[in-house]
Amino acid sequence: MTMKTTDDTATGQATGGLWAFEDRGHDPVSTRTLGFWLYLLSDAMIFAALFAAWGVYLHNTAGGPTIHGIVHPLYAFAETAVLFTGVFAYGLAMSAVKRAWRGGALLAMAAALGFGAWFLGMEIHEFSGLAALGAVPERSGFLSAYWTIIALHGAHIALALLWTGLMLVQVLWSGFTEKVVYRLLNLRLFWHYQAVIWVCVYVFVYLRGAMR
Amino acid sequence: MTSTSTHPNPLDHPEVRAAGAGRYALGYLLSLGLMFVATALVLDHALSGVGLLAATAGLALAAILVQFRFLFGLDLSEGQVWQTTALVLTVPLFILMIVLTVWMFHTLALHTHFPGTGM
Amino acid sequence: MLVHLPPPWNPIFGRLGLILHYRYNNPMIFFAFELVFVGAAILLFWLTCTRRWHTLWRDWLTTVDHKKIGVMYIVIGLVMLFRGFFDALMIRTQQAMAVGPTAVSFLGAAHGYLPPFHLDQVFTAHGTIMILLAVTPILVGLMNLIVPLQIGARDMAYPYLNAVGLWLTATAAALVMIALFIGDFSHAGWVGLTPLTELAYSPGPGVDYWIWAVQIGGLGTTLGAVNLLATIIKMRAPGMTWPRLPIFTWTSVATNIIALTSFPVLTAAVGMLALDRYVGTHFFTAGLGGDLMMYTNLFWTWGHPEVYFLVLPAFGMISEIIPTFSEKPLFGYTTMVLASMAIAGVSWSVWLHHFFTMGASPGVNTYFSIATMLVGIPTGVKVFNWLFTMYRGKLHFETPMLWAVGAIFLLISGGMTGMMLAVPAINYIVHNSVFVVAHFHNMILVIVYATFGAVTFWFPKVFGFKLDGRYGRRFFWSFTAGSLLVFVPMYLLGLMGMTRRLDYIAHPAWYPLLLIQVVGIGIYILSVIYFLGMLAVSINRRETRRVGADAWGSARSLEWATRSPVPFYNFAVTPVVHARDEWAWRRERGLTDLRPERYVDIHLPRNTVVPLVIGAFSLVFGFAMVWRIWWMAACGLVGVIAAVIIRSFARDTDYVVPAEEVRRLEEAAARAPRPDTATAAAGATLPPHAQPSVRS
Fold first, then answer.
1. Which of the residues A84, A142, A193, A194 would you substitute to probe the B interface, choosing the one with the greatest number of B C-beta atoms within 10 Å?
2. Hey, which of A206, B81, B115, C35 has its CA 20 to 30 A from C62?
3. ipTM of the complex
4. pLDDT by residue (tens digit) across C285-297?
């Protein structure tokens, strides 16, 4: 390890090189999206912790319903299709934003809102069916983990809906200003992230339950 | 933010320009297709036990990679390199956390629990 | 849906009726009550008399300036450090009083003066406060203060979010303080031992206070980590490439990677516990498929990375202090960076060493044992780098250097005992003994030493005058004597078989060592007095203690290339970076004049009250959840969401300081009489630019 503190390439510069007079501008949009991406990775860690627990709780049924008795893979596949369509709709909204087409963006965001709400409705329907069976989270460690993972994902979707609704208003209110645009970009990350988490939920919770 | 924007019109920002309906459609169809294959494999009981679990896990991984590439648009370009770096640094932690937890509790159960009682 | 609780509960007051059952005639609580209220009254009186309400509001409560936020983090940390110290005082005196069958008894306790339930709350509060609400805020505050300066940024990447993080931390601290007076606090250890924390065994609100303080504070820390990482990645000055990043900033990168990825696991673990207590799930209960070791697993999955989250910035501080007071560049910069990253990485494979005795297979224990020992390699690299930095350096033992060198000694002894604990065979024997307690206090003291060093080191940068050296040295030596007298006997007691968290000591042979510990804590009290004396003397004589940009005359990194105290815009003009030790580079070339040829407009974020409002609503939410006042919790949550939404419609969030105004401020500051930089640095005799920086 050489002990050099100075970088000789820069020493040729005159004193004038000590200060940067041009405010070259840190890019606020990509600073925001990077920060939100970091936050999403942090959020994903909560799911990682829950999936780690899920790997253990899967068998802790305490004599109550087992995973095989409560999942319906085809119904969950329909949920998958609805959610992915909502995510895709939001992608189309961003494609419209790129072309500065406000009407198209609003329409596609409204579609995402609709599909997201549909997905949530399907989840609530599924949960009420489980509750009718007595497969409530208070029944066993296994059911606690099952409900918590799915409900946490659902809560994320609910937040995405609230945020999308807010952005509908902001696009109408102030158009594509810088603040609105980076929020739209962050919301895109948020929607797409829901698809990634759902792949894990679908395969490791629902399909796992359909395996013998 | 404390500085002026480098892009006077925010819609000219590279991350806005990166949006693409075709790319999103590809990501949407591919990940839905992969999930369909996984569902079909499970419902047909095409493989047994561990094989089926591995196959579906592989399909899930493929779907996630498809989404990272086509939905998020992650790559090594200047605009996305930090996102990709952060993800690549974090994924091993997800795996460590899940694998080590399942491993330690598996051996714990062998030591302390009666098999099959669900306790 | 919600757990059915025995009365008293009603829809308006929730469980607040329970407070009628608490007995407030305990003189300990009464004393704390007096201390807090008299202190608050004096503070309010002083604020009013000196007409500082407006300043407080404008300059502090609504600020988004990273320096002021950093200072407020440190003030919160110091106040909580004081509270945690009181708890320590009570634990030590209780244990020394409660030895053997002839032990004295006061205040209704069978032995000593604290009944078990009260002592349990005291040590729980001590641990929770010291780790999450004292050391963490002080470290986050120092990173907040120094990192943007070291990389030549105007502020953090998200100044508004920065203030939100601060007020969430303040909320967590407030919840713990409220628990002292309204209701009680958790009695289940700072780790929240399951199933003791479950409703069946802890039906009171104490554990709930602990849960919501941890959750709200943890969210604040996570947001802070996002902010610091984005700042370092995106906001560096021109020329500040990664290989030129100051070492404290590098350790901040490593430590915030840990915070970003580990705090959510704590959120998950404590969130599942909260579900158990509020909804009646069975994650960690003793029956119905609950698995109490899963809590331990998840808690330590966060807990061990958290330890490195605390220690890495401390390593960064030591790495800044030692080169400055050795007048040499840091030895082995690259290995230092790699070692920090290696520690951050390995921290994700060591957590099971906190519960080797769980009963996992030898294979599992071996894996975690080896991973734990591996941590010794990068840590050893760091120790040798510091030693080689000092080797043949021109050493000045100013107060910061004393703390830094002290930290190295502590790190070596704590590291050795850590290696012992990493061996499962030894760990089985000393598990749950005070040997473990002595070990982790030893390691936390490394952090405390580095932090006190860093506070003394950077104090003149932030406030423009130095802390008094005479009192500083007294503080250091009394603190060191106290530490030795408390923790060396604790190591010995651990090896003699004393378990932790005892409220009664049945073994009279341990009495002498316990008594030595009380002497040690007495000397700690002396050190607190010296610390307060240091502050008082320094503030009183601040006009004679003013310093220039480079307070020590031999500082090296970029934060010294702006005025002291740092103006609100940090740098009059953004500096261009040429070298790893930019300030040393400029000094060697005689380029230390801070006045550029011209000035430019500066864009800055405006003050906002929204973060304070979010903090206030989250306090309402936390308090209401503790007492299960659902309407009030809903109001708190809706308040937070509404504040965020309303803020998102704000357009006028930035302002511009015109170039002419910057010129005026800079020239006024240049006219102010300041002692010469070289005479301000006590040990330095040569003018700073004449000193060679590489002596080899």
1. A84
2. C35
3. 0.91
4. 988 889 999 999 9
